[in-house]
Structure of Sel1 repeat family protein:
Amino acid sequence: MARYELRSAELGTMGASAQADILFEMGMMYATGRDCDVDVVAAHKWFNIAAIKGNERAAAMRSEIAATMSKVELASALRAAREWMTTH
């Protein structure tokens, strides 16, 4: 299955709320396997970024999915979110 990534340029002209909603949807896509394989690390990454940008649903989903992840998976997701935030 395909892997999807967002670039900040794709979000650039949107308001903060719209950006957070799209990032939340990326998390949902990976959490549910919609058009891709289920990937809890990627889901947590996108939920985390969306939560940082103010999406409350993302904060709740981030907590829910974190409860199912190993420490290694969680560390990987946090690292991926941090990398995305510093490069975009």
